[in-house]
């Protein structure tokens, strides 16, 4: 895994993205060359913006492929069927984006003949590149051999995570090293015997291990092999603790096993002036732009709500924001009036009977969230961040869920990492899962991660609905 702005990115996906950007830009130049080749020489047109046009083309196609999930690779299922089902729609979406760009900036337009050639060449290049990746993934070139220190419930969970088929990389679990203080929770045949006179480094070399994951629940006492782990580290073997392994593989922070010291001394939690200034600037510019673009949709939504269930069109509700401050979030009303007649707040469920017909539609398309643009402009919210929760539920969750208040160290968002990764939640257990994503975002928040969340939000809204 690579870390870009504190966010974990698969080396395979990064390499694939890098190669495909080069292919897309190179295809543009190849298409222009073929279009104006007269048999003897290249009669290139007078275009001073070749590189800018090539970058716009590459950005449009990469965005479209990302929105359709073409960089979410599952080695278990291969790249064949889903790839070909997604490539053509990606090119169609890219063509629509380019049409809009050419309408706004006509100087970047490079002609239909060139565009056709560029699409053909780039499509061929992408197909060949992904076929090579598939062939490579079928070998052991991308496989890492991993060893777990520990044999308890935490080690078992980490081992199952390593073998999960949706990972971007393939692991082969070499085995588990027994720790005397733990009760064995893994299969006996996976335990590696530590023979007398043999050190951990010898065990690692004999099993060709490239990474050790320390998954011991209790590291106190003399049984924990800290000196031998240091020897492995000095010999070039990667040593990772369970919390970091879980964060890397799931893009979550596991609240059940993480230690406060790991949060204190680990990286992340960048809330400096530069980050805050950039985030606020992006929020204001994006909010004003979205407000202008979405104004017709908001007017039609208000009319539809009024026709179905009369006034009020908007719904204001108390939510907990940064530093625990309570503010009123503004949304389009998606439930019937007096939805909580008993006076006790209720979790919103996927098929909630309190939701109106118009409300069901605007919730799936997330149109009900659009009025929160005003909360962003007022500085109460951000575009991307943990979703703000109601004070009633915050009081409950703070008492029952460790580190819940950490999510209030930054501004809440219209959309967030938990929303695009988990979706609906109507219980304390769901709140824990969403909190683990929120903690990951709070710890690793950056402009790069915000962009990824916005792309995933686009994908959730347009292609499969969401909360």
UniProtKB/TrEMBL annotation:
Database matches in Pfam families: Bac_transf
Phylogenetic classification of the source organism: Bacteria, Pseudomonadati, Pseudomonadota, Betaproteobacteria, Burkholderiales
Superkingdom, natural source: Bacteria
Family (UniProt): Belongs to the bacterial sugar transferase family.
Domain (Bacterial sugar transferase): residue spans on this chain: 279-462
PANTHER family the UniProt entry points to: COLANIC BIOSYNTHESIS UDP-GLUCOSE LIPID CARRIER TRANSFERASE (PTHR30576), UNDECAPRENYL-PHOSPHATE N-ACETYLGALACTOSAMINYL 1-PHOSPHATE TRANSFERASE-RELATED (PTHR30576:SF0)
Location (main, coarse): membrane
Keyword Transferase in annotation: yes
Entry membrane topology: Multi-pass membrane protein
Organism: Pseudoduganella plicata
Transmembrane domains' residue ranges: 12-30, 50-71, 83-104, 110-133, 284-307
Localization annotation: Membrane
Keyword Transferase: yes
Keywords, in A-Z order: Membrane, Transferase, Transmembrane, Transmembrane helix
Name of the protein in its database record: TIGR03013 family PEP-CTERM/XrtA system glycosyltransferase
InterPro entries, per database record: Bact_transf, EPS_sugar_tfrase, Sugar_tfrase_EpsB_2
């Amino acid at each position: 895994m690579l870390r870009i702005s504190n966010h974990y990115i698969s080396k395979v996906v990064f390499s694939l993205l890098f190669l495909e950007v080069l292919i897309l830009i190179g295809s543009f130049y190849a298409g222009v060359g073929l279009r104006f080749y007269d048999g003897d020489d290249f009669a290139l047109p007078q275009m001073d913006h070749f590189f800018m046009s090539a970058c716009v083309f590459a950005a449009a196609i990469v965005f479209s492929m990302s929105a359709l999930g073409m960089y979410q690779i599952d080695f278990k299922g291969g790249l064949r069927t889903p790839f070909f089902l997604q490539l053509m729609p990606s090119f169609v979406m890219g063509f629509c984006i380019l049409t809009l760009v050419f309408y706004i900036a006509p100087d970047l337009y490079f002609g239909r003949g060139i565009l056709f050639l560029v699409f053909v060449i780039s499509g061929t290049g992408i197909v060949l590149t992904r076929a090579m990746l598939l062939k490579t993934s079928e070998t052991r070139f991308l496989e890492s051999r991993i060893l777990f220190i520990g044999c308890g419930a935490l080690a078992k969970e980490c081992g199952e995570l390593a073998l999960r088929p949706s990972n971007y990389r393939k692991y082969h679990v070499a085995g588990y090293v027994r720790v005397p203080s733990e009760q064995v929770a893994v299969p006996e045949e996976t335990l590696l015997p530590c023979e007398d006179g043999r050190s951990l480094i010898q065990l690692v070399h004999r099993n060709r291990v490239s990474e050790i994951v320390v998954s011991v629940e209790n590291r106190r006492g003399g049984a924990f092999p800290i000196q031998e782990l240091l020897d492995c580290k000095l010999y070039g073997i990667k040593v990772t603790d369970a919390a970091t392994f879980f964060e890397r593989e799931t893009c979550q922070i596991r609240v059940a096993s993480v230690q406060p010291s790991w949060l204190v001394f680990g990286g992340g939690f960048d809330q400096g002036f530069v980050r805050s200034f950039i985030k606020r600037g992006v929020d204001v510019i994006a909010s004003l732009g979205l407000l202008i673009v979405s104004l017709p949709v908001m007017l039609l939504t208000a009319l539809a709500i009024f026709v179905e269930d009369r006034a009020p069109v908007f719904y204001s509700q108390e939510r907990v924001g940064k530093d625990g401050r309570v503010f009123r979030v503004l949304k389009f009303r998606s439930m019937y009036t007096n939805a909580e007649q008993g006076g006790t707040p209720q979790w919103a469920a996927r098929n909630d009977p309190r939701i109106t017909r118009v409300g069901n539609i605007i919730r799936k398309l997330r149109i009900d969230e659009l009025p929160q643009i005003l909360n962003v402009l007022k500085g109460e919210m951000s575009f991307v961040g943990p979703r703000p929760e109601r004070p009633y539920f915050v009081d409950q969750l703070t008492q029952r869920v460790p580190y819940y208040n950490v999510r209030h160290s930054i501004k809440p968002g219209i959309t967030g990492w938990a929303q695009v990764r988990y979706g609906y939640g109507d219980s304390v257990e769901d709140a824990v899962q969403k909190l683990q994503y929120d903690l990951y975002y709070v710890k690793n928040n950056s402009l790069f991660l915000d962009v990824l969340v916005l792309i995933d939000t686009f994908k959730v809204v347009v292609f499969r609905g969401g909360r």
